Structures are given as structure tokens and as C-alpha cells.
Amino acid sequence: MGEKKELYTIKEVSELAGISEPEIIRLVMLKKLKATRVGKAIRIKEKDMEFFLDNFVGDEEAKNLASEPVLYTAEQVSKILKLSIDNIWNLLKTGKLKGFKIREGRSSWRIPSDSLDEFIESRTRKTV
Questions:
Q1: Same domain (yes/no): 3, 63
Q2: Distance (Å) of CA 109 to CA 48, 72, 78, 93, 105
Q3: Do 64 and 87 sit in the same domain of this protein?
Q4: Among 21, 40, 52, 120, whose Cα sits 20 to 30 Å from the Cα of 126?
């Protein structure tokens, strides 16, 4: 008989939820999907995945929000990635994290969600 798993990988959650792996990682980093570290790997407990699937996946409002572009400030990205704001500005200036300025000044950077996803994905490929 099919035995239920206790822990799921990012890839398995991605396949079950129908959401890209970078988006699952972003949701974990935003703490919208609970996760556990097992060594260097990220695992999602079955109960946390079920809660997420029951409460977020399939929600019509969430689908509508997902189709609209999302822009983050450098400060928001700093909190999401748990890096200092100076590190975020350096990543933006060097092009490692893609964003654009809406006016002069340090807090005027905007980072599209897909750029943040690409950055997270590139970093997780290096560490996993």
C-alpha cells in the first residue's frame, strides 16, 4: 500500500501544488509555507504542505494576484533574504540581483518578483 511521506522536497511540493520550484522557495522564505532544514536541504512537513494546499492553492484571489507583476523595495528583499540592506544594494549595483531605480537615492530601487525568484534559484542551485 502507498505509505504517506512525512517530509517533502521542494520539487515534490512544486509538483503537487502545480507551482514552480522558485515560487515554492520564495514562499518558504516569505514564511507563507513552513519548512524545516535538514542539513543543507529544505523539507516541508506533510501537515504544513496540506495546510498550505488547503488554504492557498486554488484560491481565486491568489491566482489573480499571481498574474500581476510584483515589485519589492530593497528593504523588503533585505527582510526576505535576511541580508543587510547594504548587501542588497551591492547585489543590485553589481547586477547579481536585477532591479531598477525609480528615482535617485538608495531606497528608490524596485526588484521584480521574477528577478528575486531567479536570484533565489541561482543561490539554491549553488548550495543544494
A1: yes
A2: 34, 8, 12, 10, 8
A3: no
A4: 52
